[in-house]
UniProtKB/TrEMBL annotation:
Descriptive protein name: Crotonobetainyl-CoA:carnitine CoA-transferase CaiB-like acyl-CoA transferase
PANTHER family: SUCCINATE--HYDROXYMETHYLGLUTARATE COA-TRANSFERASE
Superkingdom of source: Bacteria
Gene Ontology molecular function terms on file: CoA-transferase activity
InterPro entries (UniProt xref): CoA-transferase_III_domain, CoA-Trfase_fam_III, CoA-Trfase_III_dom3_sf, CoA-Trfase_III_dom_1_sf
UniProt keyword terms in alphabetical order: Transferase
């Protein structure tokens, strides 16, 4: 097996909880050497649970530095001098106060890439910016859920994970450019960007997002969750060939075009709902998938994990979900998350 595609790249992380640590873990899984710089007492997520910390910090080294002290700042400078990038997710004022910007660190290494991952931008102020807060502030919560119910939040940290991936992309892009500099990624900007076609529809056509029952798509019909004889089924019919195959199996006539199905949404959904209620979600999946249709019975997370053992890895004492990036000829080693300050001497002064 070859070395990882990021072998030889050294990345420093001053990360908290999820977004920053997730970004650097993705890079570590691809072979980058990631040094996690932790404060006295350790990064706060160590206090959540061992499995939480393990899920975001495998394949890293740990160095304890007090960045508020002169000694800690000098040790940071030593690390920066031998690194390609620094990624930090903290309040903007803390990032600037601790000297974790390119302007502060370029004296040690003009080629260093400094990535600031914040709620509203490096110059956007210190208002608290947690995942749920950003979902509320960017319209995500308002467009999610049943139309007769309250705004709804997804069951996982969609903003933190999305921002972490975007920050990792920005970090790599600036490294590839060959130039050092500041990269600024905000949670707010990332989520607005991910509302792409929804935002464009409003900005250009004045179309405001509308909630539909069962998470239905705003145009494709039928494309939503359906209650079956046992469990829910996700069915996503996006074009006429899909509809033709589904209708033949379901015994439904008419509504041949996408435009007709959209115009007669209520009729289509009434027919489809009645037919799908005659069999179980699992059986419908088995019937429709061989026809090439996008369909899935709704699973719980435990069911999904049991059904996809190939996605799971072991890192030390923990079973985790592995990297989603598969590269021919490379297999990550999946080392366990580090103990606090486990790599102090070796990491600060490379040979």
């Amino acid at each position: 097996m070859s070395a990882g595609p990021l072998a030889g790249i050294r990345i420093l992380e001053v990360g908290v909880m999820l977004a920053g640590p997730y970004a650097t873990m993705m890079l570590a899984d691809l072979g980058a050497e990631v040094i996690k710089i932790e404060p006295p007492g350790g990064e706060i997520s160590r206090q959540v649970s061992d499995s939480y910390f393990a899920s975001l910090n495998r394949n890293k080294q740990s160095v304890l530095l007090d960045l508020r002290s002169a000694e800690g700042r000098q040790q940071l400078g030593d690390l920066v001098a031998n690194s390609h990038a620094l990624l930090v997710n903290m309040k903007p004022s803390a990032i600037k106060r601790l000297g974790l910007t390119y302007e502060s660190l370029k004296e040690f290494n003009e080629a260093i890439v400094c990535v600031a991952l914040t709620g509203f931008g490096l110059d956007g102020g210190d208002d608290p910016a947690f995942d749920y807060v950003i979902q509320a502030a960017t319209g995500v919560a308002a467009m999610t859920g049943d139309p007769e119910g309250p705004p709804t939040l997804p069951g996982y940290s969609s903003v933190d994970n999305s921002t972490g991936l975007t920050a990792a992309l920005g970090l790599l892009a600036q490294i590839v450019s060959g130039r050092g500099g500041q990269v600024d990624v905000s949670m707010q900007d990332v989520m607005l960007s991910q509302l792409n076609y929804r935002a464009a529809a409003f900005l250009n056509d004045g179309v405001e997002p509308k909630r539909y029952p069962h998470g239905a798509h705003s145009f494709y019909v039928p494309a939503q969750l359906f209650l079956t004889a046992d469990g829910y089924l996700a069915l996503f019919i996006t074009h006429d060939a899909f509809w033709s195959a589904f209708a033949a199996e379901a015994g439904i006539e008419g509504f041949a075009t996408l435009a007709e199905r959209a115009a007669r949404r209520d009729e289509v959904l009434e027919l489809v709902s009645a037919v799908l209620a005659t069999d179980t979600a699992v059986n419908w999946q088995e019937r429709l998938r061989p026809l090439g249709l996008p369909v899935a019975a709704v699973r719980t997370l435990p069911e999904a994990l049991r059904a996809t053992p190939e996605a799971l890895v072991t890192a030390g004492a923990f079973r985790l979900v592995g990297s989603p990036i598969k590269i021919a000829g490379y297999e990550p080693e999946y080392r366990p998350a580090p103990a606090l300050d486990e790599h102090a001497g070796a990491s600060v002064h490379w040979s």
